[in-house]
Amino acid sequence: MSSSEKGRVILLNGPSSSGKSSIGQAMLPLLADPWFLVPVDGISGMRSTEHTRELDDDEIREMLRRTRLGYHRVVAALVSTGNDVIMDYPLSEPWRLADLLDVLDGYDVTLVHVRCSQDELIRRERARGDRPEGLAVSQNVFAHGYNDIDVDTTRRTAADCAEEIVRRFEARR
């Protein structure tokens, strides 16, 4: 397969409630080619929530690790067949980035840092009401130190950020 037949990845990396999902949705109609928006929450949402037994903390950690490893491979499968993918994914553990870079080695990956002030993250998280309080602030997603594009959603709309990302993404080509 030639490199022009491989899919591309735009990875929206930021803490919970920073605006990744909204930006991803806003990007879809702006991109010239068809793209898949594949949020990690969509993969997690496919998992059963009813079990015959309760999982202990170690079992939960292992289940979440397997889910994230599987997510990386779902994205890799899509791009390996020529599909373009927007990932909505907080790289909040160092092994996630290492595994993802290994799985996507050889593919065109654009890493977008989606950030927001701590006060705004807290406000959004409370307004959402569907996440554990403090999750957004606790996620250390920027330890990798490199981003192709950086946007701050504190005072900007998802649509504004999406336009900037798409403009800068297309200018890089």
Helical proportion?
A: 40-55%
Structural class by helix and strand composition: alpha/beta
CATH topology descriptor: Rossmann fold
Strand order, sheet with most strands: 2-3-1-4-5
On the 0-100 scale, what is the average pLDDT? 86
Low-confidence region ranges: none
Textual characterization of the structure:
There is one protein chain. The chain is an alpha/beta fold. The protein has one domain: P-loop containing nucleotide triphosphate hydrolases (Rossmann fold, 3-Layer(aba) Sandwich), CATH 3.40.50. Helix content is 45%, strand content 16%. It has a five-stranded parallel sheet, sandwiched between helices. The radius of gyration is 16 Å and the shape is globular.
Key descriptive features of the protein:
Rossmann fold; alpha/beta; five-stranded parallel sheet; 173 residues; single chain
Give the secondary structure arrangement, pairings included.
Elements: E1 8-13, H1 20-27, E2 35-39, H2 40-44, H3 57-80, E3 84-88, H4 94-103, E4 108-115, H5 118-128, H6 135-138, E5 149-152, H7 158-172
Parallel strand pairs: 1-3, 1-4, 2-3, 4-5
Helix pairs in contact: 1-7, 3-4
